[in-house]
Write a structure and sequence with these properties.
21% of the residues lie in helices and 37% in strands. The chain has 360 residues and is an alpha+beta fold. A 6-stranded mixed beta sheet has the order 7-8-9-3-10-11, sandwiched between helices. It is globular and about 65 Å long. Residues 290-356 form the Mop domain.
Length: 360
């Protein structure tokens, strides 16, 4: 468990936050300037806040009231930056072992081999960073952080410097890190897709304040929480692969209802979670017929929030989970939408992007 309570003033922003991050991958989610990197740097010891308290499990890293401020090298943390920040004169093997020099113990050979295998970097061990792609550098950076025997891993927008193909390459490794490493992760992002795919817990930030925290499905499914903007809104659904069809579609079982998506790799029963963007959802009071869309989810309107412009955000509770729909206020009025009303969510199969689908 990570406990953070901080106050700090910059020009134009006053940070005043408090949250708890349980085991798993906790995402600090918000727009640029909301305070995400400041929080991570304070946890790392790279920034001394005006006041605060930071505790990892039972170890106090910072307590301004008691005059405690451990330096970075004594905090036993692994830090993954936006760029790999590998030592160019060292081989991959030497970069991986560098973090262990500052840890309380040297990782045994079996642990080194496990991390190398998990990240698929065995063939890279004798290369130097200059001969690596951006995605390979980030995998090595992840391995270096893991092999420092950290109590906590910090990741400050580790995919921001990568192009789309490299991001797609790295995301599965962060999923494995979340599920297999048994080390809590504090991850910074302003990408709704990354948050939906990776987060077990979300701490949503706005101008230096925590506006909501909790499980990813609950926070992203709240129409009042839009730290990345209305265009990035979307809810997270959990499902399982029900069948692979010969026409290239994968059928998911989402709360007892079928969802059809372009082919997803995996066997029957494999759990997945997916983000459905709010702007890709159409609403209908009655179950529609004669449509090309294969995915129709019945539900009940849970909440409706009108925006400052012509838009409105509708939260629909379905058997598959919470779905958000971004429609116009005119459409909401024409449909006479209100909490408690029955409605149907319609989603095109091809509207769900591959980056919005991941393991659970």
């Amino acid at each position: 468990m990570l406990e953070v309570s901080l106050t700090h003033r910059f020009e134009g922003i006053a940070l005043d936050i408090g949250f708890q991050a349980p085991a798993g991958l906790t995402v600090l989610f918000g727009r640029s300037g909301s305070g995400k990197t400041t929080i991570v740097n304070a946890v790392a010891g790279l920034l001394r806040p005006d006041a605060g308290r930071i505790v990892v499990d039972d170890r106090v890293l910072l307590d301004s009231a008691r005059g405690i401020h451990l330096p970075p090298h004594r905090r036993q943390l692994g830090y993954i930056f936006q760029e790999g920040r590998l030592f160019p004169h060292l081989t991959v093997r030497q970069n991986l072992k560098f973090g262990a020099w500052f840890s309380a113990r040297t990782p045994p050979r079996a642990e080194f081999d496990r991390v190398v295998g998990m990240l698929g970097i065995g063939p890279l061990l004798d290369r130097r960073p200059g001969a690596l792609s951006g995605g390979e550098k980030q995998r090595v950076a992840i391995g270096r952080a893991l092999l420092s025997a950290p109590r906590l891993i910090l990741a400050d927008e580790p995919l921001a410097a990568l192009d789309a193909p490299r991001k797609a390459e790295i995301l599965p490794y962060f999923e494995r890190l979340r599920d297999e490493a048994a080390v809590p992760i504090l991850y910074v992002s302003h990408s709704a897709s990354e948050v939906a795919r990776l987060a077990t817990t979300v701490v949503a930030l706005e101008t230096g304040q925590v506006i909501r925290q909790g499980p990813a499905a609950e926070v992203l499914g709240d129409p009042s929480v839009l730290p990345a903007g209305a265009r990035e809104a979307g809810a997270v659904l959990s499902a399982r692969i029900a069948a692979q069809h010969e026409d290239g579609l994968t059928e998911l079982d989402a709360g007892g209802h079928p969802l059809f998506l372009p082919r997803i790799a995996g066997d029957t029963g494999t759990p997945v979670r997916l983000r459905i963007a709010a702007h890709d959802v159409i609403l209908s009071r009655e179950r529609p017929v004669g449509l090309s869309s294969l995915n129709i989810l019945p539900g009940t309107v849970a909440e409706l929030r009108a925006g400052e412009g012509p838009g409105a955000m509708v939260a629909l509770d379905t058997p598959a989970g919470r779905v958000l729909a971004r429609i116009t206020r005119r459409s909401a009025s024409a449909l006479e939408l209100a909490p408690g009303q029955s409605c149907h969510a319609i989603v095109k199969s091809v509207a769900v992007a591959p980056d919005d689908i991941g393991g659970r």
